[in-house]
Amino acid sequence: MISSLLFILFAGMAIGCAVSVVVQRHPLYGAISLVGVFISLACLYVTLAAPFIAAVQVIVYAGAIMVLVVFVIMLLNVQREERRRPRLRFLVGAAVALAGVLFAEAAFIIYFVQASPATPRNNASDIGLTFSIGTGLFTQYLLPFEITSLLLLMAIVGAMTLARSGGLLRPNLAVVPGAQVLAPDVINPRAPAGAGLIVTTTSDEAARVLGVEGTHRVRDEE
Amino acid sequence: MDWNNQYIHSVVMLVAITVAFLTIMLLVAFTVLAERRVLGFIQGRLGPNRVGPGGILQPFADFIKTMVKEDLVPDQSTRFVFLLAPMIAVITAMMAIIVYPFGPTITLPFLGTFPLRIAQFDVALLYVLGVTSVGVYGIALAGWSSNNKYSLMGGLRSSAQMISYELSLGLSLVGVVIMSGTLDIYHIVEQQSGWFGMHWNIIYQPLGFIIYLISAIAETNRVPFDLPEAETELVAGFHTEYSSIKFLLFFNAEYINMITVSMLATTLFLGGWNGPGVAQFPLLGVLYFFAKILFFLFLYIWLRGTLPRFRFDQLMSFGWKFLLPVAILNIILTATLAMFGWI
Known about the structure:
The complex is a heterodimer of chains A (222) and B (343).
Chain A: H1 2-23, H2 27-47, H3 51-76, H4 91-115, H5 130-138, H6 142-164, E1 180-182, H7 184-187, E2 198-200, H8 203-210
Antiparallel strand pairs in A: 1-2
Chain B: H1 6-42, H2 58-67, H3 79-95, E1 105-108, E2 112-115, H4 124-134, H5 136-145, H6 149-180, H7 185-190, H8 194-197, H9 206-219, H10 231-234, H11 244-269, H12 284-306, H13 312-339
Antiparallel strand pairs in B: 1-2
Helix pairs in contact in B: 1-11, 1-12, 3-4, 3-5, 3-11, 5-6, 6-9, 6-13, 9-11, 9-13, 11-12
């Protein structure tokens, strides 16, 4: 009784926030609504006897990833999205069809779950506990776990590399020909101050020094 | 009395939550007063001593004064978020309180035996970390929605600082978790009850304790890490535009956060309610618990009175390049020792 009431409450919150993510015109409101979705989902996990997953959901998604998203929106001071005529009108039909498929799937699953005989799992409430998750991760699922951590490490290294090379210049900037006088800390943020200026005479050289070869237009013809 | 009865249980929970709430609010009020008096003492002046005997009613006078002030909303601000931000700040600050055990299981005449805690569950420690990490939104959104450059800078600084120090804060606790083998704060406290109540985790985790203490001060935006509201640079940081009850909520949230991080330090490192004589007189445990919290609160005020503020780049490089590696080192050390069964 109480558990189904809670389910209706949190599921309703999740759906409401999810609709709000799509409908909101301001990116920050969308981000806040997405946080609401994550927190409602975490509450649903708690009612499903998976407290560890719920805590991790809040810490990782609501507490870390979305904070970064909000942070970037604040930093760039993104304004309200302009309301203009939708250009991708032909996708509306496809979206409606896909939504229909999704609802049909959900109805199919609900029907078969209801129809199948109830078979209570043993210790169903122990599966979500920290101890059982930890034991599973470090014994039976050790290899996938380690592979995932390697993947994450690679992603971190990749992000660092991408941010380092030419990250200080916007990609739509063009490197113009002629002599360019550049302070050393423009090229390398870790360079000590007062190391002397760098003078480039051609745009190719400038692009190479700036580390933006191939990513930026080089206007030599003009 | 049958404590397992569903209805009695819910009534008891409501009473317990109310008591905890009032206790925390009183503690906040008197921490504010103590801060002003102790700072006055450190700086060779008296501090507020006019309202009531020794100024003891000063926080209530301040409360009434702030409540009746005009509630300003900046013209170009986003009203909904402006209202939402202080609520997030104070609610997340308060939500963390329910997992801390105030004392051991006690037996009272006429009432029977019951444990002095509100909630006990498997992932209490992760719950605290999760709730704390959501608290960042309060400050970030406050800074953004005020439509004020000082507020925005304060909000950005604060979110950057809290994200950075949350990592070392979380990692400094992993040592204790490795030792106790559980995330349940009540069990962690119970495990420290040996040696006449002096078998505290700080003996095995001195490094973790120091890292926790530093990150906790940064996490609560207190001196010497109070960059988000550095008066000389940012007026009042993220709450520049807030007045009246909304300001009061932010103010409350800051002090509640101080109290909750003190509670976490007490329960994880200083044995919670454990101390000499608790086994014979369980009510003594409550006294020990609050004495330890008051010690941490005094430490906060003491630091504020004596230390200058960091610069922002110093703060960041200290957090990422020193505190985080040391926290990871602490985990490796603890894990190695635990693997050989030495702790």
